[in-house]
Structure prediction request, 164 residues.
Amino acid sequence: MYSVQVFVKRRKSILDPQGKAVEQGARLLGYSGITDVRVNKQIDFTVNTEDEQEARSVANDFCSKLLANPVMEEFQIHLQKL
Amino acid sequence: MYSVQVFVKRRKSILDPQGKAVEQGARLLGYSGITDVRVNKQIDFTVNTEDEQEARSVANDFCSKLLANPVMEEFQIHLQKL
Prediction:
């Protein structure tokens, strides 16, 4: 079994409205030093296979099909054997 | 300036409906080996200070007040000097 960590981020060139809202929230709370806020997703799951290549390929497929929108987002995958 | 990475996760004992939905999506797409899906948040921001202690304390305060709900979620903070 492999434990998979996926980090999904909007591409740098794409505006992040959720991050902008958090930044405004920070300003309203008085944290004027907080800037460049980006809100990303981090998804953890387990892939039930003993083959690292297969686990990576399943995770990669799954990310492109369901977890990330490749037009706007990029993703990184970290595998760890359980 | 410090670059701050915050990882916000639901506590293990708390159900993650978004993760369950993704797991069901995986099953519908034919990925039966994918289980234990948890969807977390990862927030990046910059704190405009040269003092590491201050950066950590600002990030910590900001997380408890705005980014995480301490009743249901726990968070981890990683600092990096820019």
